[in-house]
Design a protein that fits this description.
With 143 residues, the chain is mainly alpha-helical. It is built from 4 helices and 2 strands. The chain has a two-stranded antiparallel ribbon.
């Protein structure tokens, strides 16, 4: 015979008992069956919890949850610099001055700089797309 818990006082009682010796609660066959079912569910939940804990401990011990860290910090290379998105007239002119030369941009370079600046203004939200299209038609009518 196994023990079940009394629904009233939660004390362990033999399933063959007709009443709880602690509080006097009378057991019917339905109450005994319900308590047995409850006990089985609790035992299954405890078993699953134990198995889950065991699996997690095995995974932790095997190193599955450890972060991937490099063996030394010197093996890590610095991030590559991002390539410049645009080259503007002032940057090119400064480069030429450093070399001791006078910088004269070509018409196509000036056009490229103007278009890049306008596209940047559209990305930043200071110019709408329709205003950009209108500006390019007005500035470069042959395109």
């Amino acid at each position: 015979m196994s023990l079940i818990s009394c629904p009233e006082c939660q004390k362990p009682v033999s399933e063959a008992a007709r009443a709880c010796p602690g509080c006097g609660f009378t057991f019917t066959p339905d109450v005994v069956a319900a308590q047995k079912l409850k006990k089985q569910k609790n035992e299954q939940a405890a078993g699953l919890l134990g198995v889950g804990f065991l699996v997690i401990m095995i995974l932790l011990c095997s190193g599955v949850f450890t972060p991937n860290t490099p063996s030394s910090s010197s093996s890590r290379s610095p991030p590559a610099p991002k390539p410049a998105v645009k080259s503007d007239y002032a940057t090119d002119a400064a480069r030429q001055r450093e070399l001791g030369q006078k910088y004269h941009p070509t018409q196509s370079e000036i056009r490229e700089y103007l278009i890049l600046d306008a596209r940047q203004a559209v990305r930043e939200g200071s110019m709408s797309k329709s205003a950009y299209e209108q500006w390019t038609k007005q500035k470069f009518p042959n395109d």
